[in-house]
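Anyone up for a design puzzle?
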């Protein structure tokens, strides 16, 4: 066998480091081609809690986390998750105190889908309340809204209210007869209303209607006569030198009202216009309409220097068919509707244009309104 020359040995010795570096570079390059596992995130829905250094009866607090905060999942345990905050703090949290990415995406979708929805009314939250991703008490919740938070109301839905468990009554033997032998229809479910709302931070979700108050001016709140003012909208301002208001300008309103009852297949059944009497310095009812099945939003073209005496407003009413609630979503399905428009000449309200008289919506509407009218006047 031929011995390699000194030149060959030096050539090979110089080539080996280069080949080694090239191999390392190739291996590093191939690592970039392998897709990395995406990070898993959860979001805190609890009001506030702490991360712990271990899952044990005795543990130390690592960091405080609050409602809405995003956490990266490091490890899954039994009923606990090991997570990391954006500051790099690592600790354990109970899994029922967070929501997963899928639920978070539902709230993100609600914000996106309702971005262009009109604000039909405004409200004020009575107490702290968690936003839900769907109407109903069993839906998932996330953002915690504070008491007295101002809300924009976008859409109403009515869903069955969970019934409280009751003790079973003792069996009573009844004689069987033809009158009671047939099948009995179950009673209709008790419904409760929810509002799809948007808060000041842009969060969107569902809030139970009984946890908020419609944002109604105090000056006309006492003129509802036992009804609920669903929405009040400024149509004009008048000058009263004795009014204790900025610039002595007193707003006049159109208000829509409804009974204090959940599950109604309409948003309001009365319309009133409140104008200001500059001589007696008080509000008076300039226009009133009842016995209608009306739907939000109310559109107002408020008075301006160009049309100071002729502001206009309009709203939709059901015509023809009987309005109902969608069985799947709980939202109102009014069927055929017509838009009614009005203009104000001073304190007198007129129908705008040639609008035919509005027919009542089936027999149910007139019967319902007659009953409610008789109850209010007993």
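Challenge accepted. My sequence:
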């Amino acid at each position: 066998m031929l011995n390699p020359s000194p030149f060959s040995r030096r050539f090979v010795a110089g080539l080996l480091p280069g080949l080694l570096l090239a191999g390392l570079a190739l291996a590093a390059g191939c690592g970039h081609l392998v897709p990395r596992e995406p990070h898993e995130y959860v979001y805190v829905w609890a009001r506030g809690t702490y991360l712990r250094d271990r899952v044990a009866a005795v543990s130390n607090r690592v960091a405080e986390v609050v409602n809405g905060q995003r956490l990266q999942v490091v490890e899954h345990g039994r009923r606990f998750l090991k997570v990391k905050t954006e500051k790099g703090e690592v600790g354990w949290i109970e899994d029922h105190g967070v929501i997963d990415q899928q639920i978070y995406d539902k709230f993100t979708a609600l914000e996106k889908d309702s971005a262009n929805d009109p604000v039909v009314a405004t409200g004020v939250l009575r107490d702290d309340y968690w936003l839900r991703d769907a109407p109903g008490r069993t839906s998932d919740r996330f953002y915690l809204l504070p008491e007295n938070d101002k809300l924009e109301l976008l859409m109403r839905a009515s869903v069955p209210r969970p019934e409280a468990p009751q003790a079973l009554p003792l069996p009573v033997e009844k004689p069987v007869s033809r009158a009671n032998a047939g099948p009995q229809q179950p009673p209709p479910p008790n419904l409760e209303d929810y509002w799809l709302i948007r808060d000041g931070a842009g969060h969107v979700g569902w809030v139970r209607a009984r946890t908020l108050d419609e944002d109604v001016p105090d000056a006309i709140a006492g003129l509802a006569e036992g009804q609920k003012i669903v929405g009040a909208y400024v149509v004009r301002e008048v000058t009263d030198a004795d009014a204790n208001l900025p610039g002595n300008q007193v707003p006049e309103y159109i208000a829509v009202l409804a009974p204090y009852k959940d599950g109604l297949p309409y948003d309001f059944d009365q319309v009133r216009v409140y104008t200001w009497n500059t001589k007696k310095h008080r509000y008076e009812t300039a226009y009133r309409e009842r016995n209608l099945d009306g739907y939000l939003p109310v559109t107002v073209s408020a008075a301006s220097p160009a049309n100071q005496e002729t502001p206009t407003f309009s709203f939709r009413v059901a015509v023809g068919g009987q309005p109902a609630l969608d069985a799947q979503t709980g939202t109102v399905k009014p069927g055929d509707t017509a838009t009614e428009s009005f203009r104000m000449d001073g304190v007198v309200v007129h129908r705008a244009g040639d609008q035919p008289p509005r027919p009542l919506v089936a027999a149910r509407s007139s019967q319902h309104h007659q009953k409610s009218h008789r109850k209010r006047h007993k």
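A detail worth pointing out: The domain at 41-99 is CATH 2.30.30.40 (SH3 type barrels.).
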